[in-house]
Specification:
Layout: E1 2-6, E2 12-18, E3 24-30, E4 33-40, E5 43-45, E6 56-70, E7 80-93, E8 98-107, E9 110-117, E10 125-131, E11 134-137, E12 142-145, E13 158-161, H1 165-172, E14 186-188, E15 191-194, E16 200-206, E17 214-219, E18 224-229, E19 238-241, E20 244-245, E21 248-254, H2 257-262, H3 265-268, E22 284-289, H4 291-294, H5 329-342, E23 346-349, H6 356-359, H7 379-388, E24 392-398, H8 403-419, E25 424-428, H9 443-458, E26 462-465, E27 481-484, H10 502-505, H11 510-513, H12 542-551, E28 556-558, H13 563-568, H14 570-578, E29 583-592, E30 596-603, E31 609-615, E32 620-625, E33 635-642, E34 655-662, E35 667-672, E36 677-684
Parallel strand pairs: 22-23, 22-28, 23-24, 24-25, 25-26, 26-27
Antiparallel strand pairs: 1-2, 2-3, 3-4, 4-11, 5-10, 6-7, 7-8, 8-9, 9-20, 9-21, 10-19, 11-18, 12-13, 12-15, 14-17, 15-16, 16-21, 17-18, 29-30, 30-31, 31-36, 32-35, 33-34, 33-36
Helix pairs in contact: 5-7, 8-9
This protein binds 1-deoxynojirimycin (NOJ) and calcium ion.
1-deoxynojirimycin (NOJ) binds next to loops.
């Protein structure tokens, strides 16, 4: 039995087939070329000799089409078209009389499919041992991959052939709490692939809810990738109760890398916004009492008396302060002044609350209560001062991955925020999950992350989650999930290093799932100037740092460096002040994973555009064409570009700022250095 589905524009063809033993299988053709070879589908169940793998017969197949345009609460574009042809294959398992539906949605830019388990007598409660969905690649493609891990994505990407992953695997791992459970060819998604004949394929998942996050195991003889779900403490991978379904498996395909970046397939596979009122959800530009701690100068903790504290017992006023506590009233007020002066919405303050001395990687169950400030952080004074300056403080909840503790305190913590004029929280999940044995990417944690976001919405609070599971477009449904980290973010420039091409890979990988709190804007590239004990170097030119505000999509953007440094570079800082954080339109001008990305975005509600280009080791020369601008309109452009002799390694702070008029007919040649970039602001006249 075979069945074919064709995309609205005819470029993609999906073939569904039931193999001889009743195993479902699919393949995908893009413009006559094989994107995915015949690949098996199904699920292996715990305590079930039959599983949901074979002996199926097709009972029915239902085709439909969908075409709508919807408006995101915030985003890269004002309107998103959701246009697909759908095929539902209704399968019945012989003898067991169990129904499994496979739902395919074929868009012009790719395929989404999921397993659906309707209400039925013979399949109600079941436990997944492993999902067995294959993605059979046509050949030994080039992959941009992260090593498999159930807890972290905070790695550099490796670029290699699929066949080379095994040999490079150990070198790609820098911190691997759950590594043991992966073969040497397990990789994370979003996985970006490229074939020698110029086909780009991106594999990921959409709408990950009440299910474990997916990684992929590679058979490096056949180039078949297969789903590898995150287990729980017992080794089980999913607890299901029909009616239910899996997340969508996504395959975005194009022969032009730019189309991978402009794809809205993952968002389109998520449900519409879950909230009636979204007027309280607003993009945020912020600075923070933060970089000081990351570079090892200031501390989160108030005292060095270790271990000194038992929450709720110790009188902090009795312990000796270490003199390096950054979240003190005077320092926070200085940041508020800087934010107010330069038009930032918020100041993130980390280390404001008691508990950091006891935590520091020890992750006990009761550490933070999220409502008790340190004695040198005058909450009321800071709150009122910030309010008088029109700035908000961004709350910080480091949970130390102690999930029950956070959930126990959550209502009190969010109420406390509402009472004290906070409307956003940066949450963090550093360390091994408590209860022990659970992983950051398991079903239990997937449910926690979503619970925290929905609960926050009850209090009109926006969330910026760090160390959370990879994003899967859920911000369409829950737009108060403004951004996540879930990546090797800028902090690694001061904590072990980041490859120079990282920023050219991120849009094709991590950012495919959703916005990133990347914390760009590092102007001081020699960290030892701040802290003689930290010899880190920022592997990026200063202009690359500016471009990140465009190439790293997020409605939450930080200027991560310290005010004293920005004071020295006010000419460059102007770009960060000017750049928008919400957009009506986006044009991907140039893109090649690992090499360069150039994007233009139109600021929400204005005629102004901003452009960013980031380059990898080889640098990049652009010939920019402005035909996306409105005709017959003049724009005043400021161009912030690497100087001719700039290089991320030995001359990262060399830049040139030029000004000129630009119209839709202008052509401009610009050169990004190795690890460099450029940024342009275009103000309509
Ligand atoms: C790791 C986060 O990524 C970082 O931004 C934060 O400052 C620390 N955890 C402390 O919570
Ligand atoms: Ca982190």
């Amino acid at each position: 039995m075979t069945k074919q589905l064709i995309s609205p524009d005819g470029n993609l063809k999906l073939n569904f087939e039931l193999l001889d033993n009743g195993t479902p299988s699919y393949s995908l053709i893009y413009r006559g070329k094989i994107a995915i070879k015949p690949s098996k589908m199904g699920l292996e169940l715990v305590n079930d000799s039959k599983s949901l793998l074979n002996d199926f017969i097709v009972m029915d197949s239902i085709e439909s089409s969908y075409n709508e345009t919807w408006k995101p609460v915030w985003g890269e574009v004002k309107e998103i078209r959701n246009n697909y042809n759908e095929l539902k294959i209704v399968l019945n398992q012989k003898g067991l009389e169990r129904t499994l539906i496979i739902c395919f949605r074929l868009f012009n830019d790719g395929l989404g499919f999921r397993y659906e388990f309707p209400t039925q007598k013979n399949l109600v409660y079941f436990v997944i041992k492993e999902e067995r969905t294959q993605f059979a690649m046509a050949n030994d493609m080039i992959a941009f991959w992260l090593p498999g891990d159930y807890d972290t994505q905070e790695y550099d990407y490796t670029e290699s052939r699929l066949s080379e992953i095994r040999n490079l695997f150990d070198g790609a791992v820098t911190d691997n709490p759950s590594q043991k459970q992966f073969s040497k060819t397990g990789v994370q998604t979003p996985l970006m692939l490229k074939s020698d004949d110029g086909i780009y394929i991106n594999l990921h998942e959409a709408a990950l809810l009440d299910y474990s996050a997916m990684s992929l195991d590679l058979d490096d003889k056949t180039f078949i990738l297969e789903t590898h779900l995150t287990p729980d403490a017992l080794g089980n991978k999913g607890y299901m109760q029909a009616p239910c379904h899996t997340p969508w498996r996504t395959i975005i395909v194009s022969d032009d890398a730019r189309n991978i970046l402009s794809s809205k397939l993952i968002l389109n596979l998520n449900e519409p916004c879950n909230y009636q009122d979204t007027s309280w959800i607003k993009p945020i530009k912020y600075i923070g009492v933060w970089w000081d701690m990351i570079i090892g100068k200031g501390t989160w903790a108030y005292t060095d008396e270790l271990p000194s504290v038992k929450l709720g017992i110790t009188d902090y006023k009795a312990v000796k302060p270490n003199g390096k506590h950054a979240a003190n009233t005077a320092n926070v007020k200085k940041y508020i002044d800087f934010a107010a002066k330069h038009g930032f919405d918020q100041v993130l303050v980390e280390g404001w609350n008691i508990g950091w001395e006891d935590w520091y990687g020890k992750s006990k169950d009761y550490v933070f209560d999220f409502v008790t400030p340190y004695p040198d952080f005058d909450l009321e004074e800071i709150r009122d001062y910030a309010k008088s300056k029109g700035v908000r403080i961004q709350m910080h909840h480091e949970t130390s991955a102690s999930i029950r503790n956070y959930e126990r305190h959550m209502d009190a913590a969010y109420s406390f925020m509402s009472e004290n004029n906070y409307n956003s929280v940066k949450s963090g999940y550093v360390g091994k999950i408590i209860p022990r044995g659970e992983y950051h990417y398991g079903q239990w944690m997937v449910n926690h992350f979503n619970y925290a976001v929905r609960k926050a919405a009850d209090y009109k609070i926006m969330v910026n989650a760090h160390e959370a599971v990879h994003p899967t477009g859920l911000h369409r449904t829950f737009p108060n999930l403004l951004a996540q980290e879930s990546v090797r973010a800028s902090e690694y420039h001061a904590l072990g290093g980041i490859k120079a091409n990282h920023s050219t890979v991120l849009p094709f990988t991590r950012i495919m799932g959703g916005p990133l709190d990347y914390t760009p804007g590092l102007f001081e590239t020699d960290i030892s100037k701040y802290n003689p004990n930290n010899n880190s170097h920022v592997n990026s030119t200063i202009c690359n740092q500016l471009a990140l505000y465009i190439t790293v999509y997020s409605p939450l953007q930080m200027a991560a460096d310290i005010p004293e440094t920005y004071e020295k570079y006010m000419d460059l800082f102007q770009f960060i002040k000017d750049v928008a954080v919400d957009w009506d339109d986006t044009k991907i001008l140039e893109a090649e994973p690992g090499r360069y990305v150039t994007i233009a975005r139109k600021a929400k509600g204005t005629d102004n555009w901003f452009i960013g280009c980031v380059a990898g080791e080889d640098g990049h020369e652009s010939t920019l064409n402005f035909d996306f601008l409105e005709k017959n309109k003049n724009f005043k452009a400021t161009i912030y570009c690497d100087a001719k002799d700039a290089h991320y390694k030995n001359n990262p702070q060399a830049y040139e700022i030029t000004r000129q008029g630009i119209t839709a007919d202008t052509e401009l040649k610009l050169k990004a250095a190795s690890g460099g970039g450029y940024a342009i602001s275009l103000f309509a006249e």
